[in-house]
Amino acid sequence: MLLSGKLVAVPAETVYGLAADATNPEACAAIFEAKGRPLFDPLIVHVSSVAQAKKLAVWSPLAERLAQAFWPGPLTLVLPRKPTVSDIVTSGLETVAVRMPAHPLFRKLLKSSGRPLAAPSANLFGYISPTSAEHVYEGLNGRIPAILDGGDCPMGVESTIVSLASLKKVQLLRPGAIPRGKLQAALGADIKITRKRAPVEARLRPASPGLLDRHYSPRTPTNLLAKFPPRMSSEDAWVHFRAPAQGPSHPKNHFVLAEDGNGEDAARSLYRLLREIDQRGFRSIQLERAPRNEPWSETLNDRMARAAAK
């Protein structure tokens, strides 16, 4: 299917992706149509090897160092593009986002096809990312011909995106499944994060995938709070970061991301829980901000802030 220009939803360690042959501009254009994704939002290209990545992007010692430390895995590198990369993939940017995924089925598919695969999240644009084949089916049934079912995604949030566009420094564009602390430990240096996000209706192209201000969003109105009020309405869904110290563990309108406050567990359950709550008919969803001392807090708060963006 992929080699004939069709789209296939595929499992990654992060979230399910909607894959197309990255060397086929018409197939990549079909991704935007199936998702309802604006053409100014570029795609991540997934590769089977560093050698394949070097055919798409201008490589650098920094890229080599990060690839050795985190590939295969949930790290996307934004690098200067080679002329062979289609404008539809990069949304006309002079950079391309590349990643080597770790999921065994995705890796097998990349190797079998022999092609790099462009694959944003396999959902309707702006909605909560899918972490199971069932989630993909709920959103894209009738829009795509096939889903490769790899079970639940083990990480549950998207990749970390870093820019190496200057070839000399690393800039964190989107927190993700590799916390910033691990990146800094691998490089032995601090990494700054850009806070420049793009509004959904942006006329200027975002610098990479994953930078739109409102994203990963339930249809139910959503808010992100540092602390919940003493009185919590029964008409709203309240999503606690960890199980509350007092009161019943799971009242009908109270939900918990991670019983013991483990950030990795919270990340794994975030999208699944948001999808479940979104179907329950609550007036609103109230999210509790992750504490700052949690290694995953930057990633979790980034996703919840985008889900709650107006």
Write the layout of secondary structure elements.
Layout lengths: L7 E3 L6 E5 L3 H11 L8 E3 L3 H7 L4 H10 L4 E6 L6 H4 L4 E5 L4 H10 L3 E2 L14 H8 L5 E2 L12 E4 L7 E4 L5 H8 L4 E2 L28 E4 L11 E4 L13 E3 L6 H16 L6 E4 L8 H12 L2
Parallel strand pairs: 1-7, 3-5, 4-8, 9-10, 11-14, 12-13, 12-14
Antiparallel strand pairs: 1-2, 2-6, 3-6, 4-5, 8-9
What would a concise description of this structure say?
The protein is of the alpha/beta class. It contains 9 helices and 14 strands. The strands form 2 sheets. The protein has a 10-stranded mixed beta sheet with strand order 7-1-2-6-3-5-4-8-9-10, sandwiched between helices.
Structure write-up:
The chain is an alpha/beta fold. The chain has two domains: 2-193, DHBP synthase (Alpha-Beta Complex); 222-308, no CATH class. It contains nine helices and 14 strands. It has helices at residues 25-35, 50-56, 61-70, 87-90, 104-113, 133-140, 180-187, 263-278, 297-308; strands at residues 8-10, 17-21, 44-46, 75-80, 95-99, 117-118, 146-147, 160-163, 171-174, 192-193, 222-225, 237-240, 254-256, 285-288. The strands form two sheets. The protein has a ten-stranded mixed sheet with strand order 7-1-2-6-3-5-4-8-9-10, with helices on both faces. The mean pLDDT is 93.
